[in-house]
Amino acid sequence: MWAHLLSNNSFLCKKKEYVCACKKNEGSTAYNTVKYPVTVLLNNTEMKRINEYKKLMSIAGEIDLKELKTNYRNLVKEWHPDKFRDNDEKAAEAEEMSRQIIDAYHFLVSIAPETIEKNKEEYLQTTNTSAIVDYQHKSLLLEITFLDGSCYEYFGVPKMVFTKLNNSDKQLRFAKRNIFNSYLYRKSKKEQAA
What we know:
Layout: E1 2-6, E2 10-14, E3 18-24, E4 31-37, H1 44-56, H2 65-79, H3 90-111, H4 113-118, H5 120-129, E5 132-138, E6 141-146, E7 150-155, H6 159-167, H7 171-178, E8 184-190
Antiparallel strand pairs: 1-2, 2-3, 3-4, 5-6, 6-7, 7-8
Helix pairs in contact: 1-3, 2-3, 6-7
């Protein structure tokens, strides 16, 4: 268990399956406590990326694939580069917006609860039976490649956890206990088998 002091007499306390956000009541010694699943703790960069994508796609709250697909189609129709002439000043803007819309759609689909639930069996099969071949950590993003060629990105993984993974004698066991079910993840790519 760990605790992190925040501003305004509040702190975060991580337990195995949830995080408690506690804030001190004014004029009192009591704290209000709210429990959050561990997977909702993301750093500001990842939350900013997710929120920007959700804002672009006009998604409020939890990601619903049906709503996301409808909004995606409407945005693509509105910003399709072929809709503008080559010499039009909006053509370059439409090209950039089109790329952002496509990137946002694919990213949000990959982290949507429906997608994670749909692919859970494959994910569990990979994480339980396949060895870790390679891993990289950059700015709280941990990318793990497995022996079966699957590659998953885990968001919000601190440098300390990565260092412990790196120094562990049994990396797969460490990852099963501390990473696989503790962080928001998405399947990033499937590498070709050699």
